[in-house]
């Protein structure tokens, strides 16, 4: 039997929201989804009028929905932001080259500027080349470290005030689980923060922090947004995949589990006598780091010296700046 929208009570319901369980029509869903993101932005004071904001754009559903919604809200509520798409080309044949075509189409569709930075130009390596060296077991370690820094480098080139990423509620809940299982107190303490990097780096914020992945997919589907849906060919062995599978099982039993885990992370308190990493800068590249050398420089040194596993694990080796320059 057809069910009417629980919001407007006139239109026929087109979907049931995974987040709330309410049956709503498409228009009411769009409005509710966008207004919830607007509330997140306003309540967390993510932006100030006149700021130049970079949007991390991969061509996937999260970043595509983020770009679309930010453009809509920027115009609807007169945020006064200058929005720019920033993409990272990791150099993965048959995956990133295809997804970047989607990003280029988004650039035209949303009429936003686009900056693409590549691992090849920044590090002298592509992910395809890195995988040939390190295999599939630890490749996500390299990619995660390099991609984070590459996005910052691209943002610095554009002189943006903030970077927005498409991390959603599922992503953050997965990260809480991963850090808990690893016993990584430092990351566990800050992984639920909606804004990071305000101590010196370009601040990063997550406007989709409380948006469920399923609802992002529904929004993209009903809005007929153009996005790339293929998973990275190198990611099946990623540790995050196990946390994701566990979270999906929990969500099937209790849909609020995602938000419950996030709130648990937000309310975490750490004993005062626990030593936390002190943020400094890398002695080589100047990037933020809690060690003398940032993780990217250590990993890159290993690759250039033919010792790709050098930076993986708890023990790393210090190198002189001169040796690093010789091996660049």
UniProtKB/TrEMBL annotation:
Keyword terms of this UniProt record: Cytoplasm, RNA-binding, Transferase, tRNA processing, tRNA-binding
Descriptive protein name: Cytoplasmic tRNA 2-thiolation protein 1
Family of the protein in this entry: Belongs to the TtcA family. CTU1/NCS6/ATPBD3 subfamily.
Residue ranges annotated for the Cytoplasmic tRNA 2-thiolation protein 1 C-terminal domain, each copy included: 280-310
CDD domains documented for this protein: CTU1-like
Record HAMAP family: CTU1
Signal peptide extent: none
EC numbers for this chain: 2.7.7.-
Organism field: Staurois parvus
Gene3D superfamilies for this protein: HUPs
Role, per record: Plays a central role in 2-thiolation of mcm(5)S(2)U at tRNA wobble positions of tRNA(Lys), tRNA(Glu) and tRNA(Gln). Directly binds tRNAs and probably acts by catalyzing adenylation of tRNAs, an intermediate required for 2-thiolation. It is unclear whether it acts as a sulfurtransferase that transfers sulfur from thiocarboxylated URM1 onto the uridine of tRNAs at wobble position.
Domain tRNA(Ile)-lysidine/2-thiocytidine synthase N-terminal: 53-231
Main localization (coarse): cytoplasm
InterPro entries linked to this entry: CTU1-like_ATP-bd, CTU1_C, Ncs6/Tuc1/Ctu1, Rossmann-like_a/b/a_fold, TilS/TtcA_N, tRNA_thiolation_TtcA_Ctu1, UPF0021_CS
Associated pathway: tRNA modification; 5-methoxycarbonylmethyl-2-thiouridine-tRNA biosynthesis
Record localization: Cytoplasm
Enzyme class: transferase
């Amino acid at each position: 039997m057809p069910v009417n929208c629980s919001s407007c009570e006139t239109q026929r319901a087109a979907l049931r929201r995974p987040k709330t369980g309410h049956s709503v029509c498409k228009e009411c869903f769009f409005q509710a989804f966008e207004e919830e993101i607007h509330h997140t932005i306003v309540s967390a004071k993510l932006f100030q009028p006149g700021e130049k904001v970079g949007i991390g754009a991969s061509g996937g559903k999260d970043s595509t929905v983020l770009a679309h919604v930010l453009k809509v809200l920027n115009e609807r509520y007169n945020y006064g932001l200058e929005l720019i798409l920033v993409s990272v080309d990791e150099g993965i044949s048959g995956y990133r080259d295809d997804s970047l075509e989607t990003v280029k189409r988004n650039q035209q569709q949303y009429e936003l500027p686009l900056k693409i930075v590549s691992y090849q130009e920044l590090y002298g390596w592509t992910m395809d080349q890195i995988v040939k060296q390190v295999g599939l077991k630890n490749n996500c370690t390299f990619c995660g470290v390099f991609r984070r820094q590459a996005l910052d480098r691209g943002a610095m080139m554009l002189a943006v005030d903030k970077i927005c990423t498409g991390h959603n509620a599922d992503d953050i809940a997965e990260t809480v689980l991963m850090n808990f299982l690893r016993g990584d107190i430092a990351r566990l303490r800050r992984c639920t923060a909606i804004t990071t990097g305000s101590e010196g780096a370009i601040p990063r914020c997550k406007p989709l922090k409380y948006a469920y992945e399923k609802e992002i997919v529904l929004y993209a589907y009903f809005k007929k947004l153009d996005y790339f849906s293929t998973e990275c060919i190198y990611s099946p062995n990623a540790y995050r995949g196990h946390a994701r599978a566990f979270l999906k099982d929990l969500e099937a039993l209790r849909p609020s589990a995602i938000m419950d885990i996030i709130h648990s992370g937000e309310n975490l308190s750490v004993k005062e006598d626990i030593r936390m990493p002190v943020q400094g800068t890398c002695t080589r590249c100047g990037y933020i780091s809690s060690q003398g050398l940032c993780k990217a420089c250590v990993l890159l040194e290993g690759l250039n010296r033919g010792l790709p596993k050098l930076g993986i694990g708890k023990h790393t080796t210090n190198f002189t700046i001169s040796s690093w320059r010789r091996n660049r």
